[in-house]
Write a structure and sequence with these properties.
By secondary structure, the chain is mainly beta. About 15% of the residues lie in helices and about 35% in strands.
Length: about 375
């Protein structure tokens, strides 16, 4: 017979199970659900406890330092928030990032104003959900409005914004200080170019402001989901090998092409940006040849690649490749390539490219390492 659980432990397990059942029931409601949102760390702990099985997230909590380009999930967005209806940046206008008591925590997105039209005003952003088998969209919102006929719509697109489906309409007629969290099932809109947007309708009257925070896409990949990754790093000793203590490089754009690298010209690529630790990942749905490369202009200024660019990868069915790593280091005029530093190297042309990047001189011994 199993020993009885201590009272506190038993209550903890029961509470965790109840929380999970409540989340599942909430997500099963047609058209999404709406629940009151706990604030701050409590909200995040509840979200983590309810994520069973584990899910990947693409999120933005609108840190004022990252403005329209926040990446606060386990995977990054494809791009930054794109303003709609105006182009004056996140610090001004009817669409801006502000710190307010109407934010769930810290700063948030605000769409609104006084005696203004909100028609067509808003933001949109894209996420690559390739390979996902389910996905939800949630956010926290509050409003401060009076004398208004305006509203804000939350919408989703599966084709990069060519067509939109309205998920919810939020009429700005009063002051709402209790944070509300709508959650929507966006599984039918999973694609490499899933987009979400918030867009205004009507006029503000005396005042109307819609505040959105903690925008999160949660998505589930199959257990055997193949992927190509995995890291862009600062190659401190310029040896093309990841050594202990060499940090990752964040916010570097990585591109993935289908097919061989020689055929990538003119082809559409999938893109992602590296996380804070330099990691990145492209979910893969089919076997075949792939080409991975880095937009070198997004690497730190004055840095050059110390590893081969681009990189070809051939995958069998359900196979992953987690060794598509790219090193970068500061270019220095007095660098000299050590004998064998890049041995074995792919070919002499590549070694010459590295030498030119460092304003270095190739000896006959260096060239001999490439055969």
């Amino acid at each position: 017979m199993k020993p009885a659980l201590p009272p506190r432990l038993g209550r903890t397990r029961i509470l965790a199970a109840a929380l999970t059942l409540l989340l599942v029931a909430s997500l099963a409601l047609p058209g999404g659900s709406v629940t009151a949102a706990p604030r701050g760390d409590v909200r995040e702990k509840l979200a983590r406890a309810a994520d069973s099985p584990p899910q990947d997230t693409i999120a933005d909590d609108f840190d004022p330092n990252t403005r329209f380009a926040g990446n606060d999930g386990s995977r990054p967005w494809t791009n930054a928030w794109q303003e709609l209806g105006e182009a004056d940046g996140p610090g001004a206008g009817r669409v801006e990032i502000e710190t307010s008591s109407f934010c769930a925590a810290g700063a948030c997105l605000k769409i609104g104003g006084s005696l203004k039209s909100l028609a067509g005003m808003g933001v949109s952003r894209e996420a690559d959900l390739t390979g996902a088998i389910s996905a939800t969209l949630s956010f926290v919102y509050m409003s401060d409005s009076f004398g208004s006929s305006a509203s804000v719509k939350a919408e989703v697109s599966s084709n990069g914004g060519a067509n939109w489906t309205t998920l919810g309409v939020y009429t700005l007629t009063n002051i709402s200080t209790a944070p509300i969290t709508p959650t929507f099932n966006i599984t039918p809109y999973i694609s490499p170019h899933t987009q979400v947007r918030f867009i205004g309708v009507g006029s503000t009257g005396m005042q109307a402001n819609f505040h959105a925070d903690n925008i999160v896409i949660r998505y589930q990949l199959p257990d055997s989901q193949p992927a190509i990754g995995d890291r862009v790093w600062a190659d401190a000793d310029r040896d093309g090998v990841q050594d202990a203590g060499e940090p990752g490089l964040a916010n570097v754009r990585v591109r993935l092409y289908e097919g061989l690298c020689a055929h990538r010209a003119g082809q559409t690529s999938r893109t992602t940006t590296t996380a804070a630790n330099g990691s990145y990942s492209f979910p893969i749905t089919a076997a075949g040849d792939y080409c991975v490369t880095v937009d070198e202009a997004t690497a730190p200024a004055g840095h050059v690649a110390t590893t081969l660019l681009p990189r070809e990868v051939t995958l069998a069915t359900l196979q992953s490749f987690d060794d598509a790593d790219f090193g970068f280091a500061p270019a220095a005029a007095d660098d000299r390539l050590a004998v064998g530093a890049y041995a074995p190297c792919p070919d002499a042309a590549w070694l010459q490219q590295i030498a030119q990047a460092y304003s270095a001189t190739l000896s006959s011994q260096n060239q001999a390492t490439c055969g």
